[in-house]
Amino acid sequence: MSMKTFWLFLLTFCVTYNSVFAHNITGVVTDDDGKEIVAASVLLITDKKELVSSTLSDETGAFNLNNVQEGSYQLKVTMIGYNEYSKAIVVSKSVDVGALVMKRKNKAMKEVTVRGTKPLIEVFADKLVVNVENSIVNSGATALEVLSRSPYVNVDNNDNISVKGKQGVTVMVDGKQMVLSGTDLANMLKSMPSNTISKIEIISNPGAKYDAAGTAGIINIKTKRDKRLGMNGSANASYAQGVYPKASIGFNLNYRTKKISSYVSYNYASRAFFNHLVLDRRFYDNNDVAQFSYMQDNFTKGTSLNHVGSMGIDYTLSKKTTVGISGTVGTNGFSPKANNHSSALDGNKNTLYRFITTGNHRQDYYNYSANANLRHNFDDKGQQLSVDVDYARYWNESNQNFETVYLSPNGASYQPNYYMRSDLVGLTQIRSFKTDYSLPLKNKAAFEAGIKTSYVTSNNRPLFYEKTTGDFLLDVKRSNHFIYRENINAGYLNLNKKWDKWSTQIGLRVEHTNIEAEQVTLDSTFKRNYTQLFPSVAVQRTISKKHDLGVTLSRRIQRPNYQQLNPFKFFIDNTTYREGYPYLNPALTYSVEASHIFKKKFVTSIGYSVTTNNITQVIQPSETEDSVTVQTDKNLATMHYYGLTGAYPFQITKWWSNVSNISLYYLHYQGFLANTNLSNGTPAFTVSSNNNFTLPMGFRAELGFWYQAKQVYGFMELEPMWMLNAGLQKQVFKNKGTIRLNVNDLFWKGLPRATSTYNAYQEDFVVKRESRQVSITFSYRFGKQTVPQTRKRKGGATDEMKRVGNAG
Predict the structure, then answer these.
(1) From residue 689, how far is each of 126, 243, 647, 652 by CA, in Å?
(2) How many CB atoms lie within 10 A of CB 258?
(3) What are the DSSP calls for 573-611, one per residue?
(4) Which of these ranges, 63-72, 395-404, 720-729, has the smallest mean pLDDT?
(5) What is the DSSP string of 337-382?
(6) Alpha-carbon gap, residue 271 to 591, rounded angstroms
(7) 291: part of which helix (H) or strand (E)?
(8) CA 443, 447, 451: angle at the middle one, nearest 5?
(9) DSSP-based three-state secondary structure for 703
C-alpha cells in the first residue's frame, strides 16, 4: 500500500464512522463534612450483580469510569470507617453524578479523620502502576531513585534503565517522551524531585497508538496536577544526607474556573554527589597470558544545581472544544571534580609507572519546550479529535580540563605532564505535529487513528586541545563536527472490540524514517531511508469471576538516540573514555506475552522476544589505540529474552498491606566485537517486596526490600545487588501538611559490580554511590477543595523526545 493510499484510507475511515456507544461516569466522593475521600472503591454493577468497571477516587476525591455501555446499573462506593453508599443510575449518555456523600459508621468517630490511601502498587491487565506520592521511602528521592526501586525496573551502574531485564525502554513524562537519552536522561531524572511525581506507569507491551520506539516497553512518569476550582496549590521542601547533603524546594499554583484551567510550578534542587569507580583492566596476548594491566581508582565529586519551571493554560471555547498552551524551561548545571590514581603493571604485576589525573569540569544544560493543543468532542459519547504542535530546543556547553602527572615507581618524573581540555557546544531542535481521532462504534467497538510528523536537527561540535610543552594545540584526532537530521512520518489504526467474556485490540502503525548524518571534520556523510510496519494484537478472555487470561503480540523498534550517535569523547583519563558511535543501526523486536489475572489483582505473565541488531552498551578495548578502553554502544546480532513475571498485592491485616514482585528471565546474546565471538546467557531473577503499615495516632510506615541476582548483559556479567528501605510518615495541620522521614539502602548494598570479558581483554569494576541516605520531607497543601474533572494532555513530540544527546 502506497503512502498516499494509506493517508486516503485513514481519512476516509475517520469520516465515515458516526455511530457511538461508550460513555463516562464521573463524580466526587466526600464525607458528610464535605471533605474529599481518597482511595474510596467505586464499583459499577449490573442488575445481575456482575462487576462492569471499578476504580479508586483520586487525591481530590474525583473518579472516572470509562467506556460504559447504555443500560441500568448500581453504583456502589465503599471505604473503611464509612457506611456503603449505593445509587441506581441509568446510562444513556455520559453522566456526572456529582458529590457522593458517605456517612461515617459511628458518629463518635467524627473527630477522627479517616483517610484512605491508594496502594503503593496497582496491577492492571496492560500495565503496572506505582503510586509514588503514597510511598514514604520515595520522599526526598529523585525520579531515577524512584525508578530503581520500582517493580520490573533496573537501573545499572551506568544509569541505563531496563524493564524485566530488557534494555530499550522509552521514558515518558505525562505521556510525552523525554527529549533526552543515556547519561543526559539520567542527569535529568536525578534532578527531578519525587514530590513532583504522582505515579509511574510501567507498560511492558504497548499497542499501536504509542510510538514504535522502545523495545522493552514504556515507563510513563505522571506528575501531580491539582483539579480544584479557584486558587490552590502546594509547597514542598526536603533535605537528604548521604555522604554529602542534598536539598530541594518547590511550589505549584493552580487556578481554575469553568472556562479556564491554568497552572504554574517551579522546583529548585541542589545535590552534592560523588562517584567512586575502581577498575582493574587486563590486556592479554594470544595465549591468554596477561601482558599489561591498569589499576585505576577514580573519585569524582560534584554539585548539580537544577531549576525547572513550567506553566500551562487551557481555555474552554465551548462545551465541546478546548484549546491550550503549555511550556517548560529548565537549566541544569554540573561541576564535577575528578581525581584518578592509576598504576600501569607488567604481566607479573610489577609497577611500570603511575599516573595521576585531575579534572575540573563544567557542564551546563539548557532547554525550553512549548506545546499548543486543541481537543474537540463531537458529542458527549466519546468521539474526539485532538491536535498537538510541539517545539523543543535543547543546548549545552561542556568543558573538560585534565592534567596528568606521570611518575616512576620511586616517585620521580616518568615523562612530561600531559594537559587536555575540550569545549563542546551542542544544539538539538525538535518540531512535531500530531493528531489523534477516537470514535466509539456500535456493538462494543471503538476505533482510533492518528498521524504524526517530526523533524529533528542536532548539531554538536566538540573541540579538543592538548599540550605537553608550550601552548595548547588542536587535537585533530579527537575533534569533530557532527550534524544529524531526522524526519519521521507515522500513522496508526487501532480497533477495540468487546464481547461478554472476550475483548480484543488490533492495531497497525507505519513509520517512514529519513536520516542524514554528517561528520564534517572527516568529510563523511551517510543517509538512511526506510519504512517499517508495526502490528500489535491484544486478546483478553474472562474465564470466571476469578480468572482472566490475556495475550499480546507486537513489533517495535529502538532507534539509536542522538547521544549514542554523537562521536564526542568524555574522558576519565587519557586511557579510558566514553564516546558515541555514528554507525549504529536501529534494533527491531518481535514480542509476545501471555498473562493470567487472578481476582482482578494477582498478575502472572510469561513472555518471549527476539531482537535483531540489539543496541548494547559495551566497555571494550579501542580498535585504533593501544591499551585504551572505550565505553560505547554497538549492534549485536541478536538478543533472545524468556521471562516469567508476577505482581502480587496482599492485604495481610487491616493495618498491613504488601506488594511482592518477581521477575525470572533468561537473556541470550549473540554477536561479534573486538575480535570476540559472543554467545552468552544465564538465568537471572529480580524480587521486590514493599510493606505498608497503618499505625496509631495517624502514623504510617513502610519497609521495602529489593534483590537482583547475578545476570549477563552482552559481554558483561553483573554481580548481585540488594537494598533495604524504610520510612515513617505523619500528617499534620489538619491533614494539609505531611512530614516524611526515610532511609534508603540501609546497609549500602546497592553497589554495581561487573566483569567484561573479551579474547584479549578483561575488566573488573565496582561503583560506589550515595544510594544510602536519610531524608526528611515536608509538604503543605492549600486552597479551595471543590473538584471538577479535568482533561489530560499529551504533547506530540513523542519518539524524538527521548533521544536527544543534549541535556536539559
Answers:
(1) 21, 27, 10, 13
(2) 8
(3) ETTEEEE--TTPPPEEEEEEEEEEEETTTEEEEEEEEEE
(4) 63-72
(5) EEEEEEEEEETTS-EEEEEEEEEE-EEEEEEEEEEEEEEEESSSSS
(6) 40
(7) strand 290-316
(8) 175
(9) strand
pLDDT band at 45 (very low <50, low <70, confident <90, very high): confident
Q: Is 20 helix (H, G, I), strand (E, B) or coil?
A: coil
Quick check: 504 pLDDT over 50? yes
Higher pLDDT, 480 or 113: 480
Q: Which helix (H) or strand (E) holds 15?
A: helix 3-16
Residue 676, pLDDT score = 93
Q: Which residues 6+ apart lie within 8 Å of 482 measured at CB?
A: 458, 459, 460, 461, 462, 517, 518, 519, 520, 565, 566, 567, 568, 582
pLDDT at 41 over 90: no
How far, in Å, CA of 631 to CA of 580, rounded?
A: 9
How many Å apart are CA 524 and CA 482, to the nearest integer? Answer: 10
Cβ atoms 138, 144 nearer than 8 A: no
What's the Cα-to-Cα distance from 318 to each of 23, 64, 258, 263, 322, rounded to whole Å? 19, 21, 11, 21, 7
What global pTM score does this model have? Answer: 0.74
- In this prediction, residues 163-190 reach a mean pLDDT of 67
Distance CA 92, CA 101 (A): 24
Q: Which residues contact 543 (CB under 8 A, 6 or more apart)?
A: 501, 549
**Rounded mean pLDDT, 253-279:** 89
- The alpha carbon of 525 is separated from its chain's Cα centroid by a whole number of angstroms, namely 33
**Confidence label for 177 from pLDDT (cuts 50, 70 and 90):** low
Among residues 580, 675, 572, the alpha carbon closest in space to that of 294 is found at: 572
Give dist(CA 224, CA 228) in Å, integer.
13
The most distant pair of C-alpha atoms in the chain lies apart, rounded to whole Å, by: 91
pLDDT, position 20: 38
The pLDDT of residue 796: 54
Q: How far is residue 492's CA from residue 383's CA, in Å, rounded to a whole number?
A: 17
d(CA 70, CA 173): 34
Q: What is the mean pLDDT of residues 255-270?
A: 88
How far, in Å, are 58, 312, 788 from residue 62 at the CA level? 5, 21, 8
pLDDT for position 108: 42
Cell numbers 498491606: residue: 657
Which pLDDT belongs to residue 114?
Answer: 40
User: What b-and-e string marks burial along 302-325, b requiring 16 or more CB atoms within 10 Å of the CB?
Assistant: bbbebebbbebebebeeeeebebe
Q: How many CA atoms lie within 13 A of 151 on its CB side?
A: 31
Query: Alpha-carbon distance 89 to 73, whole Å?
Result: 5
- Summarised one tens digit per residue, pLDDT across range 429-446 is 999 999 999 998 888 888
pLDDT exceeds 80 at position 290: no
How does strand 95-102 pair with strand 23-31? Answer: parallel
Q: What percent of the chain has pLDDT over 90?
A: 37
Euclidean distance between CA atoms 250 and 43, whole angstroms:
37
**Per-residue pLDDT reduced to its tens digit, 101-155:** 988 775 443 434 444 455 666 655 456 677 776 666 565 566 776 776 676 776 6
Beta strands of 228-289 (E only): which ranges? 230-241, 245-256, 260-284
Taking residues 499-525, what's their average pLDDT?
A: 88
Count the residues in the chain.
808
Three-state SS for 5?
A: helix
Task: Single out the residue of 522, 559, 529, 720 nearest to residue 633, CA to CA.
Answer: 559
Q: Are 672 and 680 in contact (CB under 8 A)?
A: no
Distances in Å between the alpha carbon of 697 and those of 36, 114, 428, 654, 743? 20, 11, 53, 15, 22
